[in-house]
Amino acid sequence: MSSPLASLSKTRKVPLPSEPVNPGLRGLSVPASLMAFMTRKLWDLEQQVKAQTDEILSKDQKIAALEDLVQTLRPHPAEATLQRQEELETMCMQLQRQVREMERFLSDYGLQWVGEPMDQEDSESKTVSEHGERDWMTAKKFWKPGDSLAPPEVDFDRLLASLQDLSELVVEGDTQVTPVPGGARLRTLEPIPLKLYRNGIMMFDGPFQPFYDPSTQRCLRDILDGFFPSELQRLYPNGVPFKVSDLRNQVYLEDGLDPFPGEGRVVGRQRMHKALDRVEEHPGSRMTAEKFLNRLPKFVIRQGEVIDIRGPIRDTLQNCCPLPARIQEIVVETPTLAAERERSQESPNTPAPPLSMLRIKSENGEQAFLLMMQPDNTIGDVRALLAQARVMDASAFEIFSTFPPTLYQDDTLTLQAAGLVPKAALLLRARRAPKSSLKFSPGPCPGPGPSPCPGPSPSPQ
Where is the segment annotated Disordered (predicted)? Predict the structure, then answer.
């Protein structure tokens, strides 16, 4: 019996089957030039891929660097809010300066901006957030000019000069009609005491008016512009002289305490300004062009010449403001005016003698005659000068006044005795025919009968 190993040695070894080979390709060979071209092409493509890969990596690095730069330069939300707030504050300050310039321009013409009434609910009932800050984004009024204005710098020398000029416009010893119970009386104007401190002014016996008060600023603006303060217009419509006490080196103690020696801020100023902002002027106090002209002097005498003040200003305002029909003012050449002109040229420093300035309005109210007379001149002198200026008969008109109602018929009456010194406003009217009177004379009785009437019978003359 043979072993298995012996049987293996007798088995025939058969080779494994290989892959089928195409008999047509066995004899095909690749040219060397094609192989070199393909190799070179492959190398070029590899170089191109490498260059593009390097370019992509470079661009990725640049993009990453730019993203880091953008992230660095991007402002923080809080910083953006602060920048926006600064821009708004700058804009508000510019608008505030423009408003002050426009108000100053209006005040130069005696005008004042009134505007529309403020909404009290929006200005006072603003809600407060949980952090105790005001919701300023929903408020209508972002800026309060009164809280941001510093106390004005007052030019004391210019203020004193303006007060002196205003006092010179008022004739010394001038009188004013003052209403009293049951009538009126003439009162001599007395100078108003005005004390000028470093921090404010005081008229009469008080109260003290600090410079930061808006009403005081309006008063100073009127004086510096050459007008009497508007707050005195009701009591003194024709002006009043001032008796100034220059105390600019003294500080008026409003609260009775000595001033704080160091530097600091005044507490409560903002609340004071807010309270003053609520005080609105009456709508009827708006100044018209006619009221503005009435505040000016009608004429002044400089070097013997009567200078019309209101006329040129009225012509300037005529184009922008509706004005009533202008009254033609005619200066009548009188001997007193000629003498005063000569005196002012020869000796201008000598005091002027007492004079009587008359303003007489014509019958139709379209003309006003200005006469400078002596107190001892008579009504007849005035009548003759008017007749000469009007080129008409002196007996064709009458001179009278409305307050008190007086008809000046006595031509021998002096102006001093008639109460027309130092100045007066009179009117003219056509002379009225005397009323017809009934006289009684004897005559026949109008009734039937042969006998005459025993009593007198009226007969018109």
Answer: 1-23, 436-461
**Structural tokens at position 100:** 């002050």
For residue 331, give Cα distances in angstroms to 114, 171, 180, 459: 39, 19, 34, 50
This prediction's pTM: 0.31
Instruction: Provide the 8-state DSSP code for 285.
Output: G
CATH number belonging to domain 156-253 = 3.30.420.210
51 half-sphere exposure, CB direction, 13 A CA radius? 6
Burial 161-193 (b: 16+ CB within 10 A, else e): ebbeebbebbbeeeeeeeeeeeeeeeeebeebe
Q: Using the structure block, give the residue that is written with the tokens 């880091």.
A: 68
| pLDDT of amino acid 12 | 60
> Is 70 exceeded by the pLDDT of residue 435?
no
Q: What is the pLDDT of residues 157-197, one digit of tens each?
A: 888 888 888 888 776 666 666 666 766 677 777 788 888 89
* Residue-level pLDDT at 18: 57
Written as six digits, the tokens of 419 are 């109460």
- Local structure of 243: helix, strand or coil: strand
Q: How far apart are CA 222 and CA 107, in angstroms?
A: 8
Is 327-430 CATH 3.40.50.880? no
What's the CA gap between 349 and 269, in Å, rounded? 50
Spatial CA neighbour of 255 closest among 244, 241, 266: 266
Please provide the DSSP assignment of 394-426 as one string: GGGEEEEEETTEEEE--TT-BTTTTT--SEEEE
CA distance 280 to 380: 53
* Comma-separated ranges of CATH 3.10.20.90 domains in the chain: 327-430
